[in-house]
Amino acid sequence: MSNEYAKNDLQDILDGLSLQLRTITQLQRERAALTASATVRKRVTVTVNADGTVIETKFSADIDDLDYPEIAKAVTEAAQQAAAEVARKGQAVMAPVSRNRDRMPTLTDLIPGMPDLKGELSVPPAPHVSTAPPGSTERGAAHTDSASDAERPRGGATDSGW
Questions:
Q1: What is the pLDDT of residues 74-91, one digit of tens each?
Q2: How high is the pLDDT of residue 142?
Q3: For residue 39, what are the CA distances in angstroms to 61, 77, 89, 93, 130?
Q4: Alpha-carbon gap, residue 103 to 95, rounded angstroms
Q5: Cβ proximity of 37 and 52 under 8 Å
Q6: What is the pLDDT of residue 110?
Q7: Mean pLDDT (whole number) for 19-33
Q8: Half-sphere exposure of residue 150: CA atoms within 13 angstroms, side-chain side
Q9: CA pair distance 37, 84, nearest whole angstrom
Q10: Cα–Cα distance between 137 and 3 in angstroms, integer?
């Protein structure tokens, strides 16, 4: 009888996984369709796609009131603002996936005595990505904070030992 319960539990898990995959596919389509725009100085509007890639840049008729450095700065600021907005929208669209993932049973729940590998397999948080221009003080500081060659793991497929 308990084997029948195990089969039913496994089927429930597989059904839940199938539903989760269908949901992820639909949400990924919705996310892929996202865009966001930002306007800076009432003269520069930049639109980005779901990946934050600039897909359109528009200047108002009075753009010539700005000099080239001002235009460049406005374009950069508008692109950064639009990218931040589309990232926020993308997180909101994909939020149900995180909620559903938290409800899924773990291996420990399914197999008595199985160790919890969640802590072992967790990915460290990604470092902050600078929006500072090349050559700026902030970008230089971020570069020096990264791991030195001595701290990086050695070896691999391109190692001369192969």
A1: 999 999 999 999 999 999
A2: 56
A3: 14, 9, 17, 23, 21
A4: 13
A5: no
A6: 67
A7: 89
A8: 0
A9: 10
A10: 64
Separation in Å, CA 65 to CA 7, 38, 45, 76: 72, 19, 15, 18
Chain centroid to Cα 128, Å, comes to: 12
Q: Write out 8-40 in H/E/C secondary structure.
A: HHHHHHHHHHHHHHHHHHHHHHHHHCCEEEEEE
Neighbours of 48 (CB within 10 A): 25
List 56's β-bridge partners, or say none. Answer: 47
Tokens standing for residue 135: 């050559």
Q: Which two tokens stand for residue 102?
A: 């938290």
**Which domains, and CATH codes, for the chain?**
27-144 (3.30.1310.10)
- d(CA 47, CA 86) in angstroms, rounded, equals 10
29-46 burial, b for 16+ CB within 10 Å, e for fewer? eebeebebbbbbeebbbb
Q: Give the separation between CA 87 and CA 53, rounded to whole angstroms.
A: 11
